Amino acid sequence: MFDHYAQNSLRYFPEKCINCRRCTQVCPHRVFAEGKDHADLVNPRACMECGACEKNCPVQAIEVQSGVGCAWAMIGAALRGKDMDTECSCGGPDGSCCGVEPEEEPCSCGADTKECDKK
Amino acid sequence: MEQPENACCGDTAQKPAAPCCCSGTPGPAPAIRTTTSAITGKDRWDHVLARWGVNRMGRIVPPGLYRLGSPDKDSPVFASANYTLSFDALRSALAGTDAWILVLDTKGINVWCAAGKGTFGTGELIRRIAVTGLSEVVAHRKIILPQLGAPGVSAQEVARYSGFSVEYGPVRARDLPVYLATHTATKEMRTVRFPLADRLVLAPMELVHTLLPMIAVAVVLYFLAGTVAGLAAIAAVLAGTVFFPALLPYIPTHDFSMKGFILGALVAIPFAAAFVRAPGLSGIAQVIAILVPFLLIPAVVAYLALNFTGSTTFTSRTGVKKEIFRYVPVMVLMAGAGTILGIALGILRFTGVA
């Protein structure tokens, strides 16, 4: 109830895994844990779709539609008639797009959403 | 195999052995800069200003290779973003360590955000290793990246095109001293959290973004509907930008919008109580006076709460998107109904009907 975060786009194919453990090093939310023969997907719900695991998996055993969960950027994109999914990404602590990291680059978020062009 | 984004030459996939530099011959490596671990009073003041969004683009560190202490060819290499808060966190955490710091050009954006965008990325890392002549500076072939750089960097591609193996250090630079003792990170070091201090440090920026509209609306409401109505506008924005981040984990439900509705309803209670006590209101006008704050304030707080998703450390794009489609129409309906009822109430009072 009132939880739209229970599902996400993370898919894991353990049969491809070579147990290099990269995913357990890069995931900031302990979604993967070290296993005996392959990494174990232990907490898929915690995935924030940052894409670090997919990008660092040498055998493509992980798929995720990476992006940043930033309503500011997505609403801004939708209002300008752009695609919410391909719109620039942002987010994170220590200054994230929406809150803290406006910038002059095209494809920025936050204060500069008007310049937030497609990447 | 996916081509690393911006992998300088564009044809590196075909010529992995070639130096990854568009000119082919890199020429003389740029001078190595020197830095220290000291964070001065000026740095600290600068960090405060950064949190308020002052002079945003004045926080760029020149990209390139930096010498920290007295590193030699066997000293470790750390990568960072060219944003002062990122760079300062790294260099201060490395106090007492002789090291090289490779500052990537992330356009003045912190590591995690830049990684999400790919500017702290495979291509830039490979290119920066090449143009700084890093392989001539150090004898080893290992570079330590912040863990949060991983969304932008493919370690296996960096190794293939630059020869440097990527080691992901801890999430937080301040864990580096412990990490460096064994080069293994605890689960704790690998996990991103969002404690009160981290949430509150973002509040000024949230507030700055909404300050002008808040003042404008408050002034308009003050003249149209009185002091309490003006204060209600300020309360709604403060609730959405300051109290919401502070109370985030304690407000029930998972969805940010629903959390915002709940917080907004709480904020609306005293204002509804104040409005309903206005002298000379008829029965129907009293009902409207209660409805208006309960429609408008939760809608505003929920919208601001939803917009905080991008500042957090855990919301997924899939979830945020679902939230937008589910709740934004509700917010619009509530705000629209609240505005119409508010105007109706004003007309009723102005014409003396109420």
Brief summary of the model shown:
By secondary structure, chain A is an alpha+beta fold. Helices cover 16% and strands 7% of the residues of chain A. In chain A, the strands form two sheets. A two-stranded antiparallel ribbon of chain A has the order 1-4. A two-stranded antiparallel sheet of chain A has the order 2-3.
Describe the structure.
The complex is a heterodimer of chains A (119) and B (354). By secondary structure, chain A is of the alpha+beta class. Chain A has three helices and four strands. A two-stranded antiparallel sheet of chain A has the order 1-4. The longest helix of chain A is centred in the middle third of the chain and has 9 residues, at 71-79. Chain B has 354 residues and is an alpha/beta fold. Chain B contains 14 helices and six strands. In chain B, the strands form two sheets. A four-stranded mixed beta sheet of chain B has the order 1-2-4-3, sandwiched between helices. Chains A and B meet through α1, α2 and α3 of A and α3, α10 and α14 of B.
Keywords:
heterodimer, A: 119 residues, alpha+beta, two-stranded antiparallel sheet, disordered C terminus, B: 354 residues, alpha/beta, four-stranded mixed β-sheet, two-stranded parallel ribbon, 14 helices, 6 strands, 8% strand, elongated, disordered N terminus
Radius of gyration of chain B: 26 Å
Low-confidence stretches of chain B: 1-26
Structural class of chain B: alpha/beta
Helix amount of chain B: 40-55%
Largest sheet: spatial strand order of chain B: 1-2-4-3
> What summary fits the major beta sheet of chain B?
4 strands, mixed
Shape of chain A: elongated
Number of strands of chain B: 6
Rg of chain A, rounded, reads: 16 Å
| Helix count, DSSP H or I runs of 4 or more residues of chain B | 14
Please give the number of β-strands of chain A. Answer: 4
Outline type of chain B = elongated
User: What is the largest interface, and how many residues per chain?
Assistant: A-B, 64 and 65 residues
Task: Figure out the total of helices of chain A.
Answer: 3
Termini gap of chain A: 35 Å
The largest β sheet of chain A comes out as: 2 strands, antiparallel
**Average residue-wise pLDDT of chain A:** 77
What strand line-up does the widest sheet of chain A have? 1-4
Q: SSE string of chain A, helix = H, strand = E?
A: EHEEHEH
